[in-house]
Amino acid sequence: MKIGIIGCGMMGGALIKSISRQVGGESIYLSDFDGAKVEALAKELGANCSDNKTIVKECDYVIFAVKPAFLKAMIQEIVPEILNKKPVIVTIAAGVKIATIREYIGNGVIGNRGPYDGTIVRLMPNLPATIGEAMIGLCTDKDDDVTNTAVTQVKNFLSLAGETEQVSENLMDAVTAISGSGPAYVFMFIEALADAAVKLGIPRKQAYVYAAQTVRGSAGMVLDGGATGNSHPAALKDAVCSPAGTTIDAVQVLEESGFRAAVIDACVAAYEKSVELGKK
């Protein structure tokens, strides 16, 4: 099996590094408008430098990791190769629906043939893919043996990138708002927690360790069930809040400041932007 990626930026690069650990660099083909970046990444992974058309001709799975604004033009340059080879296409373009990609291919440079009918898998990864801790949303628009086999294979070669969960495509904008954009919200919280630590006298370097490890440990308890045997965040929060203690006073301030509402509003804003991108 050969896997190609068109676009080796932050997210594309993170995914392909994880994939190479699973399948081996010799099975990886890389392409990007930045030739120096491709050469450096190929050298690091033991992968193959290539170009867009060659990737489609050679590879069984082709990952489109370019920005949504550049996706249509990129696809239309390789329509003949896609129609001839019919690789499994994996896309990570935020907001861009599978039906839109089918139209880009089917109505490409060799004439209007109607929507493309090959297998397309849509992903929404996030930045922790760079350390193998991503939360990746996955969807398709078909339910047949060929597609299901492709989805299983995609999950397999993404297994070292993080966790993958399949959803219906109508939830992908929500996935983008929660896990795709979510690391930014968490980083802001860690920064704020660290700033509070500094204000209270903890040195900056230690402040980031206290803040980040607190977030990591708390997230681990939600995922693993925690000491209470209950993984619900509310139950875990209650376990920290002793009667008349320090934590309940802090929780009251967060509630009075609209902490939950601000997080929800931020996610809704990201969701609406993802929907907007899908309309362009």
If you had to describe this structure to a student in words, what would you say it looks like?
The protein has 280 residues and is an alpha/beta fold. 56% of the residues lie in helices and 12% in strands. The chain has 13 helices and eight strands. An eight-stranded mixed β-sheet has the order 3-2-1-4-5-6-7-8, with helices on both faces. Helix 1 links the parallel strand 1 and strand 2. Helix 3 runs parallel beside helix 5, helix 8 crosses helix 13 and helix 9 crosses helix 10. The longest helix is centred in the last third of the chain and has 21 residues. The chain is elongated. The two termini are 34 Å apart.
Quick description:
The chain has 280 residues and is of the alpha/beta class.
- How many β-strand runs? 8
What is the element string, with H for helices and E for strands?
EHEHEHEHHEHEEHEHHHHHH
Summarize the biggest pleated sheet: 8 strands, mixed
Give the CA-CA distance, first to last residue.
34 Å
As laid out across the biggest beta sheet, the strand order is 3-2-1-4-5-6-7-8
Radius of gyration: 22 Å
- Fraction in beta strands: 5-15%
* Net shape: elongated
Q: Which spans have pLDDT < 50 for at least 5 consecutive residues?
A: none
